[in-house]
Amino acid sequence: MRRRAFTLLELLVVVAIIALLVGILLPTLGGAREASRTAFCLNNVRSMQLAHWMYLEAHDGAFVDVGLAHGGVETNEAGSWIVTLSEFYETDLARQCPSDRSPHWPIDQGGAGEHVPESESALRRTSYGVNNYLTSFAPAVANPNRPSTILRFRNINQIVSPSDTVQFLEMTESGPFAGSDHPHVENWHIPGFPDAAPALATQHLETNQHGGEARTWAAKANYGFLDGHAATLSFEQVYTDLDRNRFDPNLQR
């Protein structure tokens, strides 16, 4: 018996149904992919926090330090955590977030090999940075214009609340800080302009790497804390102003 061929109308109906299903499924699949990248990145941050605890135990509680410069400032790569912490984590991939699309990565790491602005030859070395309140590297030490409260936090024994103190964060993908391993948190505050902070922070951090709009309080990124835990948090959950944030250990006392 001869099989009946599909009519043009039937084919158009099938095509329309397929297109409808694709339209429904693609956003879901895209969301699932992004959720997977966020989870992978969060695991990177947790791995670095775990590695840091091993470092603490091996160095009498002393923190790793920073050293990758920005804007032509002095560099101390040998002292940077990407070097000193390397023996405690598994691979270089732990330093690269799968959502990171910076053109400043080397070509063999998925970037365009573009030099970081305001540098002659620097490329991106890490998606992540260390809170500059937790460094003793002089050019990076936080200076919030409150000399009486400035401390160089160098050791876990100085920290009253490790679970409330951010250590690792996600660095911006563009601009001079794309090649750095630390932000300058104290520069996010302008007196009289409380809502400027989310925009100012984007000069240093990729605050919306995992959701929300850039330059807003709702922007989401991954943050690691000194006690070893990590979480995906909105910017407003980690920073309000100089006197209310989870970066300055002085405020957690």
Descriptors:
253 residues, alpha+beta, 4-stranded antiparallel sheet, two-stranded antiparallel sheet, 4 helices, 6 strands, 25% helix, globular
Describe the structure.
The chain has 253 residues and is of the alpha+beta class. The chain has one domain. It has 4 helices and 6 strands, in the order ααββαββαββ. A 4-stranded antiparallel β-sheet has the order 1-2-3-4. It has a two-stranded antiparallel ribbon with strand order 5-6. Strand 3 and strand 4 (230-234) form a beta hairpin. The longest helix is centred in the first third of the chain and has 51 residues, at 8-58. The chain is globular. The model has no long low-confidence stretch (mean pLDDT 88).
The overall number of domains is 1
Counted by DSSP, the helix tally is: 4
Number of strands: 6
Mean pLDDT, nearest integer? 88
Low-confidence stretches: none
Alpha-carbon Rg, integer: 22 Å
Fraction of residues in β-strands: 5-15%
Give the helix proportion (percent range). 25-40%
Please describe the biggest sheet, giving its number of strands, its sense, and whether it closes into a barrel: 4 strands, antiparallel
- Pairing-aware structural class of the strands and helices? alpha+beta
Order of helices and strands: HHEEHEEHEE
Termini gap = 86 Å
The strand line-up of the biggest sheet is 1-2-3-4
Shape: globular
